[in-house]
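Re: weekly structure request thread

Next one in the queue (300 aa):
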Amino acid sequence: MQVISIKTTNNPAIIKFELDEFIIKTTNFEFKNIDETKESPLAKQLFFLPFVKTVYISGNFIAIEKFSIVEWQDVQDDVAAQINDFISDGGVILNIDEVAQNKKQPITIYAETTPNPAVLKFVSNKLLTKTALECKNIDETAAAPIARELFKFPFVKEIFIDENYISITKFAVNEWEEITLELRTFIKEYLENGNVAIDETAIVKTEGHQKQQEGYFDKLDTTSQQIINIIEEYVKPAVQSDGGNIVFESFDATEKRVKVILQGACSGCPSSTFTLKNGIENMLKDMLKDNDIIVEAVNG
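Done, posted below.
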């Protein structure tokens, strides 16, 4: 009989169910729906539970991200029991033959320039993460195995990962034409070998991450909510296309001051702070009918 330990994570929507032995040692798996579970009969079984959003399998644990229709304390013991019963009855957690067959998946990676000459954007045909993550150095890569490997290149200074792209900031010692092919090849081979870019169960929920959650938005004043909606709809898509990100930080109703944080290619870009500040400022003044609004842009 398996010993299954229930462990919380930094993400309240995700619980880990740890086993007393390894499931798989070299690869992580993420299943976002039942159609993706060919490699894992257990994941397929778990998706019959209506609150299961995503299933992760790595090392000695199965992690589950839930929808908000239930609380973990109400269902976690039943899920642990179901996993235990499945394994005890001879159920297969991972179909190793399928894993070996599907391990190498064709990945396309291409490089795009950004307005920041120190940053290049590497775009994948595969979703890399649902949670944007910025790594200023190798000590910040606990949740980003691919970033940890990329920092081993001596010319890599900073890394920003969001959706299907990786923005890499280089040191000035090398020109992009000298290193682009090497980076593109590494990223392509890393992903094709079944490695994950981001382990979302390991992301430390910083104050910045908390501010991206629905619960935080609901507690804000009406003007702050309007500002966030304008940024999300009209500003962020353009910023992301340039390999960056913009995050609402705060709104001071007394000073009419909006503070935003720039990440990825936008962070430290010679022109982005001025361009974005004035562009957002003019947009907010126009859409909120308030000419006193001031925008302060801060590099992440």
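The first helix runs from residue 41 to 46. The first strand starts at residue 5 and ends at 8.
Next request, please.
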